[in-house]
């Protein structure tokens, strides 16, 4: 039986051929797909092959090993994934019942060797099995660690519940591994020497997008700078790798303990030097983005790439007043509960929201799919040119030509006050009328427009029977008044609504 040892070219290799470059497709759900070519030199019959270049978080049942040309008939008879890499605790457990030398120092500081028999190593492996077997498994491992986590060493006929020094282990055996390994039994009908394609899914990798939005002190334009952040916690370094980022909400089964699954999107853009750094294309129901240049992605490294830079994007500032404040006592109420409760909706919220709104179109300097991610807003102070942070939020996946509206905080100089001035329930208890007065106070030195958003929450059948300003029906149960408020002045909006549920 022939044994072949496979390993990736290291960072110190002088030349990396195209076939040696790994390729990664990274998702923002803590996993990635790894593809790389590994050299196989097989004889006819069964071959034992060891691959020691896998990640720590490889999913063994996702492994695909094949001849990409289809010329070699390759069959995987057996695959074993070993992740029990050597550690001091594991080595000590292998010598339970045996005697080792322990390096320590005497009273004068001179190094001496003390012989001790390992009664118990205190090593409890496989906490990571909780990913598959759940919290009960993890708790059992923790109990074992608590009960057997202290080493017991016999020295001169006496038991010690700690190591008497630094253990001196013999040389490693061939069975010891320093990195996770895939061990295959491969069958080939004839001798074959070729580069096989290895693909697998691994955890411990993710990517996300973030945006910095910079506006001048005055005006309704802004510059947008977007970053891709790639995080590698897979336990493996990828040298000179080709990277793709798949955007969209991909369905992937996760362990119960892994929590909420996130999916992000990504877009292409040009850098300041007008060199394409990221290209994008539609792929199935998602978007696939490719980094133009191969890059080295080190383990435990966070890498950032600028992927969008747009200037002069028109972005309106909106002031929105949603004056109703709903108390915790009404949590979970439906319209059946609400419609006859005269106290519902009488609490007032004084805050006026500040929103920024822009269209993701080519005419507005954008026009490509925007990924879900965090947005940070800055204003440039004209006095000294410095940027001041003014708020942050997130955006969801946004196709081109759609409108983006982002909440950035509450206005300091705008105040709202919503008061119910009348409530009349019919004698037959089949209708109700109520009247609201909404005061908007503007302490700015310039006039502003405020959008007053009112939800007609008592019933689906409603009619505005009286109003002081025109309104727009935004959906089946919401209306909106667009109100001008003068500088250092006040505007009052009133309306009366009738609900009928007969």
Descriptive overview:
The protein has 502 residues and is mainly beta. Helix content is 6%, strand content 51%. Among the domains are: 2-84 and 177-202, no CATH class; 88-168, no CATH class; 316-359 and 406-500, Immunoglobulin-like, CATH 2.60.40. The strands form five sheets. Strands 14, 15, 21, 22, 23, 24, 25, 28, 30 and 31 form a ten-stranded mixed sheet that branches. Strands 2, 3, 5, 13, 16, 17, 18, 19 and 20 form a nine-stranded mixed sheet that branches. A hairpin with a 5-residue loop joins strand 26 and strand 27. It is elongated. The termini are far apart.
Give a summary of the structure in a few sentences.
The protein has 502 residues and is mainly beta. Helices cover 6% and strands 51% of the residues.
Structural class: mainly beta
CATH architecture of the domain at 316-359 and 406-500: Sandwich
Output the CATH class name of the domain at 316-359 and 406-500.
Answer: Mainly Beta
Major sheet: 10 strands, mixed
C-alpha termini separation = 86 Å
Mean pLDDT: 83
What would you call the shape?
A: elongated
Number of helices: 3
Q: What low-confidence regions span 5 or more consecutive residues with pLDDT below 50?
A: 1-19, 255-276
* β-sheet strand percentage: over 45%
* Oligomeric state of shown chains: single chain
Q: Which fold name is given in CATH as the topology of the domain at 316-359 and 406-500?
A: Immunoglobulin-like
């Amino acid at each position: 039986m022939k044994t072949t040892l496979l390993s990736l070219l290291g960072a110190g290799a002088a030349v990396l051929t195209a076939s040696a470059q790994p390729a990664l497709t990274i998702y923002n759900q803590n996993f990635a797909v790894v593809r790389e070519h590994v050299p196989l030199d097989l004889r006819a019959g069964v071959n034992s092959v060891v691959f020691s270049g896998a990640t720590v978080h490889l999913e063994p049942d996702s492994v695909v090993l094949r001849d990409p040309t289809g010329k070699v008939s390759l069959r995987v008879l057996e695959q074993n994934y070993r992740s029990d890499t050597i550690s001091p605790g594991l080595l000590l457990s292998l010598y339970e019942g045996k005697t080792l030398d322990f390096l320590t120092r005497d009273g004068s500081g001179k190094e001496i060797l003390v012989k001790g028999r390992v009664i118990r190593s205190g090593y409890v492996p496989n906490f990571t099995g909780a990913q598959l077997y759940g919290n009960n498994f993890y708790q059992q491992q923790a109990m074992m660690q608590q009960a057997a986590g202290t080493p017991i060493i016999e020295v001169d006929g006496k038991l010690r519940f700690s190591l008497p020094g630094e253990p001196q282990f013999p040389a490693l055996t061939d069975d010891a591994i320093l990195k996770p390994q895939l061990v295959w039994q491969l069958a080939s009908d004839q001798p074959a020497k070729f580069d096989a394609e290895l693909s697998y899914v691994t955890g411990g990798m993710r990517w996300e997008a973030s945006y910095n939005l910079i506006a001048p002190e005055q005006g309704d334009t802004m510059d947008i700078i977007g970053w891709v952040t790639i995080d590698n916690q897979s336990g493996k370094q990828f040298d000179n790798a080709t990277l793709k980022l798949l955007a969209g909400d991909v369905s992937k089964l996760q362990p119960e303990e892994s929590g909420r699954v996130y999916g992000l999107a990504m877009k292409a853009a040009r850098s300041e030097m007008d060199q394409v750094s990221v290209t994008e294309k539609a792929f199935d129901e998602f978007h696939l983005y490719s980094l133009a240049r191969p890059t080295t992605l080190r383990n435990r490294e966070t890498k950032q790439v600028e992927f969008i830079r747009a200037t002069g994007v028109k972005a309106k500032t909106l002031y929105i007043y949603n004056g109703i404040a709903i108390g915790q006592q009404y949590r979970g109420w439906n319209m059946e509960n609400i419609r006859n409760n005269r106290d519902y909706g009488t609490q007032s919220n004084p805050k006026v929201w500040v929103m920024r709104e822009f269209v993701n179109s080519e005419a507005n300097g954008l026009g490509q799919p925007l990924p879900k991610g965090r947005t940070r807003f800055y204003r440039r102070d004209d006095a000294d040119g410095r940027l001041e942070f003014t708020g942050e939020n997130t955006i969801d996946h946004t196709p081109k030509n759609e409108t983006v509206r982002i909440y950035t905080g509450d206005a300091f100089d705008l105040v709202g006050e919503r008061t119910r001035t009348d409530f009349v329930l019919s004698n037959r208890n089949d209708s109700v009328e109520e009247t609201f007065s909404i005061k908007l106070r503007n302490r700015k030195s310039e006039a502003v427009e405020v959008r007053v958003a009112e939800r007609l929450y008592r019933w689906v059948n409603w009619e505005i029977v009286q109003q002081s300003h025109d309104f727009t029906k935004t959906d089946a149960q919401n209306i909106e008044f667009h109100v001008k408020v003068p500088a250092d002045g006040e505007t009052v909006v009133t309306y009366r609504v009738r609900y009928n549920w007969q």
